[in-house]
């Protein structure tokens, strides 16, 4: 599928801020089923984007903008060509040992309830079946609700509350998979939903888990499916904190208003 | 406590060990009243130094003095030589371990340390994988805790590769001895420790990134005046002649770290940081940290600033990793370890756990990630009820514990409640490693359990400190 993305993030401050530093994970890497045709990031303030790569192989841009700033807009525009591989991800740079992806993080520490849920759902099934069962069970248990959880909500909290957004679904899936002994990780990116919807208020988040013979396979518990060619895969990590699109700090006392606009459209195939 | 402990002055009883000959004669000649007077003077002195220590978890978290015991501990030059060689070897292995774990991972491939012990460990920082440590030495400052059980045998009790503290006490204690007992000092051939700050400065300078000038700018980064070790941070900055900064005094632009000064921004090359990994940089680690410097880790990755110690060195402090140190030393140095580990049962192993559960009243059980004497069981000193409670904790999460036999730690004469009596001690030498090799100031910080028979020397648990002498044989 030929996908076109436009993602703008606008911060408006009620009093000018003195400076902003941000770290962006907004640039996808190609893999066997994802070709980057065109991609650029713009910041509307005087700032240089310094590219680097983190331990997970994600492309990171860091920038510093000097104040006083009344607003800041980051615009991402890109085009990718994707293929449907039923979630199987190949051709990504894999430098980290698999064992690392069994590690608990603050956002993905399983509590007793998640351990039990994982044990009951995954049981002694073969890995791939276990993961599908987990995805389905998370999807069934959780209600998709915007605004009740935040970026700091843990898997255990969301599991108890039984609702959340894609990130919470993914964290629960990851916590449960690791509890069942299956390496798992968080993935951030974009999704063009079925039905021709083009405007979104947020990016998407899902999970990948390691299946012997297949390698990393994507699972999207919020949509109860494996990622298709409608997904743009951008960054991965142990949890949202490693892979989320923007981490930043500003100096100055101000209240910020955040406006995010995401447009994912299907281009015409040549 | 069962077997008698080795006393560094009197051996196993009645002996007069050569190391203490002079000190012992002095103690016999010095009236207790004079010692008592000196003790009061010492207290006033330490109040003036401003040495205090806040104890976590105590309701009245008021700052208090760590007791200073007047009577120096004495090691001979030949005893010190054994320690010096062994410590150098061990710290070189620790540095090699850190570089390997975040690099090629050869020790894991060789199956010497189990992978899951490393990867599941919070002190292991995935962010460091593949990062070339600016300066090339991840652990320039190590504090290795040593205990002694007889005339020959020293054991390593614990490795501290994260941010070992206590060196200010070593230096203040020596100064106090000079002031309180000038005649005794003049008579004794004690090797000096006063050059520690110069050695530390030389080490930090030697590890400056390539971008730095021949006189690199160094700063000590502290979490602030509410931190329990703030005294030491300001003390060290002062002795090193460098700025003491908090996170908000530094900023990062284009991957370069600057310090705000009255003359404008000044580039910083080396940061002796006393802020934990988690709080160093809200962009890379805990996003809610207010103590760190946003962008610092990015600058570090780019090789523009040296952090002493490096990020992720705490993995070497883990007590489960500790149990593999003899193999680790062999793997990296190709030599037999000169310093011994205390025999350690890993409760994650079924057979070891069974043994530990059967012998709790004899053992010391510790949390693998714990420090400061918190969360441990000293079997012989515990009630049946305490042991039963601990047993539950241990059974519910065996991976989290190791156990060791209760060692009869050596004792030294101490001046307590108006008399001289033996008290158990340990020793933390400070091992400095720069680009030109490893240096250790002779001695270290001796910690002493002030209660009779107690084996817990941690200052958070009421332990005191002593001046530590290395004297010519």
Can you tell me about this structure?
The complex is a heterodimer of chains A (270) and B (473). Chain A is an alpha+beta fold. Chain A has helices at 112-122, 127-141, 155-161, 166-179, 240-243; strands at 2-27, 34-43, 50-53, 59-82, 88-89, 143-144, 163-164, 184-191, 199-200, 204-211, 215-219, 231-237, 246-251, 256-266. In chain A, helix 1 crosses helix 4 and helix 2 (127-141) crosses helix 4 (166-179). The N and C termini of chain A lie close together (11 Å). With 473 residues, chain B is α+β, with helices and mostly antiparallel strands. In chain B, the strands form five sheets. Chain B has a five-stranded mixed beta sheet. Mean pLDDT of chain B is 92; it is low at 55-61. In chain B, helix 3 (77-101) packs across helix 12 (325-333). Chain B folds into two domains: 18-209 and 305-341 and 407-471, no CATH class; 345-405, Dna Ligase, domain 1 (2-Layer Sandwich). In chain B, a hairpin with a 2-residue loop joins strand 16 and strand 17 (419-428). At the A-B interface, strand 1, strand 4 and strand 13 of A face helix 5 and strand 6 of B.
Condensed summary:
With 270 residues, chain A is α+β, with helices and mostly antiparallel strands. Chain A has helices at residues 112-122, 127-141, 155-161, 166-179, 240-243, and strands at 2-27, 34-43, 50-53, 59-82, 88-89, 143-144, 163-164, 184-191, 199-200, 204-211, 215-219, 231-237, 246-251, 256-266. In chain A, strand 3 and strand 4 (59-82) form a beta hairpin.
């Amino acid at each position: 599928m030929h996908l076109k993305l436009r993602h703008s993030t606008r911060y408006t401050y009620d009093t000018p801020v003195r400076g902003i530093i941000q770290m962006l994970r907004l640039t996808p890497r190609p893999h066997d089923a994802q070709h980057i045709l065109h991609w650029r990031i713009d910041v509307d303030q005087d700032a240089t984007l310094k590219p680097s790569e983190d331990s997970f192989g994600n492309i990171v841009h860091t920038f510093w903008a000097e104040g006083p700033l009344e607003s800041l807009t980051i615009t991402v525009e890109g085009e990718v060509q994707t293929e449907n591989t039923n979630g199987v991800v190949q051709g990504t740079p894999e430098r980290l040992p698999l064992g690392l992806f069994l590690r608990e993080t603050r956002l993905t520490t399983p509590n007793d309830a998640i351990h039990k849920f994982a044990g009951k759902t995954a049981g002694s099934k073969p890995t791939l079946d276990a993961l599908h069962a987990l995805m389905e069970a998370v999807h069934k248990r959780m209600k998709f609700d915007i605004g009740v959880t935040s970026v700091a909500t843990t898997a255990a909290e969301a599991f108890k509350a039984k609702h959340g957004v894609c990130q919470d679904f993914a964290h629960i899936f990851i916590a449960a998979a690791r509890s069942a002994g299956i390496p798992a990780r968080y993935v951030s990116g974009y999704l063009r939903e079925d039905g021709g919807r083009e405007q979104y208020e947020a990016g998407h988040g899902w999970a990948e888990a390691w299946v012997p013979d297949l390698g990393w396979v994507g699972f999207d518990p919020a949509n109860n499916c494996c990622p298709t060619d409608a997904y743009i895969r951008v960054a991965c990590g142990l949890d949202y904190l490693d892979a989320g699109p923007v981490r930043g700090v500003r100096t100055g006392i101000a209240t910020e208003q955040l406006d995010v606009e995401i447009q994912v459209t299907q281009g015409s195939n040549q | 406590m069962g077997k008698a402990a080795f006393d560094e002055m009197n051996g196993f009883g009645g002996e007069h060990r050569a190391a203490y000959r002079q000190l012992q004669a002095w103690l016999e000649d010095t009236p207790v009243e004079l010692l008592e007077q000196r003790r009061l003077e010492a207290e006033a002195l330490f109040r003036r130094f401003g040495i205090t220590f806040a104890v976590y978890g105590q309701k009245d978290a008021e700052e208090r003095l760590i007791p200073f015991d007047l009577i120096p501990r004495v090691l001979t030059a030949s005893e010190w030589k054994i320690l010096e060689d062994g410590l150098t070897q061990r710290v070189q292995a620790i540095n090699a371990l850190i570089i390997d774990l975040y690099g090629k991972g050869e020790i894991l491939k060789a199956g010497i340390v189990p992978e899951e012990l490393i990867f599941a460990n919070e002190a292991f920082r995935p962010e460091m994988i593949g990062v070339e440590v600016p300066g090339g030495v991840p652990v320039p400052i190590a504090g290795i805790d040593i205990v002694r059980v007889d005339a020959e045998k020293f054991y390593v009790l614990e490795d501290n590769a994260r941010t070992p503290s206590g060196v200010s006490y070593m230096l203040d204690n020596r100064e106090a001895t000079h002031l309180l007992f000038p005649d005794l000092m003049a008579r004794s051939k004690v090797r000096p420790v006063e050059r520690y700050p110069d050695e530390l400065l030389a080490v930090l300078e030697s590890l400056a990134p390539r971008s730095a000038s021949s006189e690199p700018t160094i700063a000590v980064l502290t979490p602030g005046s509410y931190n329990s070790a703030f005294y030491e941070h300001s003390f060290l900055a002062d002795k090193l002649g460098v700025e003491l900064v908090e996170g908000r005094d530094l900023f990062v632009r284009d991957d370069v770290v600057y310090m705000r000064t009255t003359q404008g921004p000044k580039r910083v090359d080396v940061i002796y940081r006393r802020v934990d990994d988690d709080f160093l940089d809200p962009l890379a680690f805990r996003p809610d940290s207010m103590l760190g410097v946003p962008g610092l880790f990015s600058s570090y990755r780019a090789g523009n600033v040296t952090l002493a110690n490096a990020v992720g060195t705490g993995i070497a402090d883990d007590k489960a990793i500790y149990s593999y140190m003899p193999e680790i030393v062999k793997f990296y140095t190709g030599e037999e370890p000169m310093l011994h580990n205390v025999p350690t049962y890993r409760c994650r192993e079924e057979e070891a756990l069974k043994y530990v559960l059967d012998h709790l009243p004899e053992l010391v059980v510790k949390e693998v990630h714990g420090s400061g004497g918190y969360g441990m069981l000293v079997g012989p000193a515990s009630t049946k009820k305490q042991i039963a409670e601990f047993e539950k904790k241990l059974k519910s999460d065996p991976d989290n514990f190791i156990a060791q036999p209760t060692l009869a730690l050596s004792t030294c004469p101490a001046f307590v409640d108006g008399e001289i009596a033996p008290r158990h001690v340990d020793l933390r030498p400070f091992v400095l490693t720069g680009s030109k090799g490893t240096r250790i100031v002779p001695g270290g910080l001796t910690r002493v359990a002030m209660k009779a028979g107690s084996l817990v020397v941690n200052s958070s648990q009421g332990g005191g400190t002593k001046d530590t002498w290395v004297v010519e044989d």
